[in-house]
Amino acid sequence: MTTNKAAFHALFSKDKTRKSTGIPLSAGMVLVTLGIVYGDIGTSPMYTLKAIIAGNGGLMTMSTDVVLGALSLIIWTLTLITTVKYVMVAMKADNHNEGGIFALYSLVKRSAKWLIIPAMIGGAALLADGILTPAVTVTTAIEGLRTIPATHALIGDNQQIVVIITIVILCTLFILQKAGTSRIGKAFGPVMTLWFLFLGTMGIMNMTADISVIRALNPVRGVLFLFDGKLNAAGLMVLGSVFLCTTGAEALYSDMGHVGKGNIYLSWPFVKICLILNYLGQGAWIISNHTDTALNNINDLNPFFEMLPNQIRPFAVILSALAAIIASQALITGSYSIVSEAIRLDLMPHMKINYPSSTKGQIYIPLVNSIMWAGCIGVVLLFQSSEHMEAAYGLAITVTMLMTTILLYTYLAVMRKRIWAAIPFIIFFGAIETMFFFSSLTKFFHGGYVTVLLATAIFIVMFVWRRGTAIERSQSVYLPVNKYIDQLQSLSTDPDFNLLADNLVFLTNDSSFDKLDRDILYSILDKRPKRAKAYYFINISLTDNPNTREFVINDFGTDFLFKITLRLGFKENQRVNTYLYQIVSELIKSKQLAPQNHKYSIYKEHSEIGDFRFCLLRKVLSPETDISGFDARCLELKYFIRRICGSPARWYGLENSNVIFEYVPLFSRVKREQKLTRIMLDELVQTGSIPEIKKPNQSHIAEIEEDEDIFSEALHKERVENAATVANYVGGDTASFLPLKLDEDDAEEDVFEEQDAEEAPK
Description:
The chain is α/β, with parallel strands linked by helices. The chain has three domains: 444 residues, Amino acid/polyamine transporter I (Up-down Bundle); 188 residues, no CATH class; 79 residues, no CATH class. It has 29 helices and eight strands. The strands form two sheets. The protein has a six-stranded mixed β-sheet with strand order 5-6-4-2-7-8. β7, α26 and β8 form a beta-alpha-beta unit. It is elongated. It starts with a helix and ends with a helix.
């Protein structure tokens, strides 16, 4: 049966009409939502007002008007940024019920090519935030030990002990990632529910000291405080501290796909009320105690812990530590999801992804885990205290929010055709977030530079990878398969060539209906002709729907040649080996492929499916390639990153398969050939341009011949070793390659080491 073009295109048009139902509303999922979504924003009361007090000059400066103004800014930041922008607007811009900056970019990417820049900047800043959040939250929670008289007597003001405890907790947290969080995840919801109830209860208890603190609900007080130099000693810089109250808003949007819109809509009012009550309680305590001399002498005072009764502070420290760990866990897991989505968008190299449990959306990326672990430990060791970390912490998320605002404007104006809403949206939120950004930027030299360095490094990786991939794809040449069917059929039955495999498989980036990459056809027919009973050319097409698992086959009217398009959702693991067995089995059942019974087998019933061999191509920069210096550096850096990230053969599930690897030169534009002019040796001798070659002395002949023989042997051996290295190398894909010069260097060292070992006894 031959797949026609109409059916092929029909399959690719399904996404236009398909609509995912998402996760339904339920009491159980509401509890899960409390545990997964709100960890970051739920721990913000531990450090927001603390940062404002430190920035304003200390507890003594926190008069009633100052407190009411700061609280008003916090309350209305939570309302405008989190509630209005993210819950009411951003969550409407879902990609098949998936949220986050990369999901949003997937919706608007066809509107303008330049939108990839804010998407990459926002994604890089969000990943930088994922490194900073565990360090800030855990350090702040452990610093709460000082508010307990018994533990303060033991550790005093020694910050080194806090740092050691924080590092131990972070190391344990990252080590446990490999096992997954399916078991402890069941406790996340109840713990965070208890945490929010605790926040609200403590807030109400302290509000009784000064109930007039509810005047902070008036937004006018926040505006007046912001521009009143007599009250606000920090000026606009105070917004950098205020912004800490809404740092988890972006995570709320990103986790929408894990818990469903309805569950967030139902749970957010409860979370917001508890947060506001706690902030009001802290404000009431500050108003009542800002003149206390003993409290003013406390270094790095934290009103969140100080307002608690002494008898419940141990419980509060333990509960806050658990909440900090849950918040860190949510950011770490969220970072895995962000990287996974970036990989699918060709913004990052392929990496090994593990699925440690059956929990929806739960993944584990070993390399990302190691990088985040090193980054968190580095941040803790660099800043030592949470006070110093907060400057770096706020800057990361402001950048992400600004980029999200740009993408949301495009979504409203272009996708939804609501320009009347898009323009006020970007003007209002753009202005607010720009002020937050410049406020956070003023702390650049106080720690914000760390955020810039982290985000810049991540952005460079994304840019280089996308640019390098674009260059590789731009030079690709695709040939019509029909012109080569006769040759391929003759080769498959030619007894002059040994049978390489029953099924020979190539991975290709070409998604066309009836064409193949020139490099693949050259590998089969010209470069060591590869005989097989059946040839498969597999293209993996990523869909916007996260859970798609489909395939389409074009057999070109043959029973030995198949082009397969695997349509996989961006959350599906690309295990080509597993899928291919299913496809071949289907082809045999439909009689499109003859059974491939083996004569010998350990099984009583021989399998109808023969053996597989995968041929993966890696492109390398060729000396003949005419390419700009910038593009060449991008490609070299891409290949270096690829080398660090490991073999993509593991990504495609081929680590236990029979894989052959081939180098393919990258030709973007070929340099103009410089023609040589031959000059005869006799003419040079006659003109006297070179001296006449004299016959060598007989005494030196043996030495010369020996030197020539040794030299020639060395060159020959080097060529053989290089060829063997290339032939035996396993791994790679059609879009990621290592520079050939690196392998040549390695091969050269090996050649001379072996040569010295052989000649040493002589």
